[in-house]
Write a structure and sequence with these properties.
This protein is α+β, with helices and mostly antiparallel strands. Helices cover about 30% and strands about 15% of the residues.
């Protein structure tokens, strides 16, 4: 089996000029619209979930439900792990029609479980070792189209056996991406 493509390779494969990377917590130096992607420095066979952060998530959101029931931190962490695609480097894709730097700053500033300033990619906050994440970006006025193309390129590169191990009916998406511009949303069972 060939190794998973890097985010830079995936972005180039869809015809974009790539900028980055920067380490997690660092804003890109772009104020243009575009897409951005979070990558693991090394591909991992399973998600390294920070159980303390999951506990804080449950404390911040007392109405959170998993399949209609109040979960324990262990059951919620297990659900997050069930969507991990082994050995893939792309973990999240986002887009903005405004400033890339501002949107990524909002992503970093949003606590797990909060809706503001930007809840996209919030599962990333549940991971251990954010210092092993980096961010790539590409300026473009066709954000939605390129986001969709990047997700499609990613899904095509995921081995069939890894995709088959996802929860039944789950679309093949980067781990922290819960939906795509044109495809189905991921049914996580997590609500409220």
């Amino acid at each position: 089996m060939s190794p998973a493509p890097s985010v830079a390779d995936l972005l180039r494969s869809i015809g974009l000029d790539v900028d980055g990377p920067v380490r997690w917590g660092t804003r890109p130096n772009s104020r243009a619209p575009g897409i951005f992607a979070v990558e693991a420095l090394t591909p991992e066979p399973s998600a390294h979930i920070d159980i303390d952060e999951v506990r804080r998530w449950l404390e911040r959101v007392p109405d959170l439900r998993l399949d209609g029931e109040r979960p324990t931190q262990s059951t919620l962490a297990a659900r997050l792990r069930s969507f991990w695609l082994p050995d893939q480097m792309l973990l999240y894709v986002g887009r903005t029609a405004k400033s890339m730097s501002a949107r990524v700053g909002s992503l970093y500033a949003t606590e797990l479980g909060h809706a503001r300033p930007h809840p996209g990619g919030h599962w990333l906050k549940a991971l251990h070792e954010h210092d092993k994440l980096r961010l790539w970006w590409a300026d473009t006025d066709a954000q939605e189209e390129y986001e969709d193309a990047l997700i499609a390129a990613f899904a095509e590169a995921v081995p069939a056996e890894a995709a088959a191990a996802l929860p039944e009916g789950s679309p093949v998406l980067p781990w922290a991406k819960l939906n795509s511009p044109t495809g189905p949303a991921r049914d996580t069972g997590i609500s409220d």
